[in-house]
Amino acid sequence: MPRTAFAFLTATLLLSGCSAVSYEALSTASIVKPRFQDNDPVDFGHKHPGRHDIHGIDVSKWNGDIDWQAAKKSGVAFAFIKATEGKDRIDSGFEANWRGAAAAGLPHAPYHFYYFCSTPDDQADWFIRNVPKAAVRLPPVLDVEWNHASPTCKLRPPPATVRAAMRRFMDRIEAHYGKRPIIYTTVDFHRDNLVGQFDDYHFWVRSTAQHPEGIYATRRWAFWQYTATGVVPGVSGNTDINVFAGTEKNWQAWVAAATE
Length: 260
What we know:
This protein is an alpha/beta fold.
């Protein structure tokens, strides 16, 4: 994403309310019916995800075969699709998923799950080798989180090392695809490494127990992953669901600028 486009998107999101501070600027009703069902719903109070106009999913091979037309018809507006992991793994569902999302006319972006046991250049090389530019309609995503369950890489570098690796990886990806990456992160990883950092990037934050303002302090966010147990037509089993920070009008402007 060119820097001028990024500046436009940032201004759009600031005006629409993409942070704890400016959330009330969203032009959505305080009491609305949830867009999707949830197998384990959380009471977010009056700042619940249903107030947002734009909802989307993030998927991987674990979601199985997806009926993308049905998902779009149900109200899914975008998709983040797992592409690669570390320096040598590709998600087996990646190609079918991005092609299916594209055929359904859904804005979509690939994401890379980062491993701190290999170098940012090795991982950027792997991502570039396996993710064609045709699969990158929206800005690509760097997924950074502590991988507690990994059988091979539980390494936790110090914050400065983490941030330097992220910067190198994202610089490589931006140079190749021409779009500034989005950063996906979790509560603990953000607390340990990212508070006050990378303010010139859009963030996609995970917060499934309360609104992000309660745990990400002043972090401005563009996307909020609010559940891992959502029910979405066309997708089997529990599904991650996300919202975009702004209104539908903001979303259309965001997509138009991101896909230039």
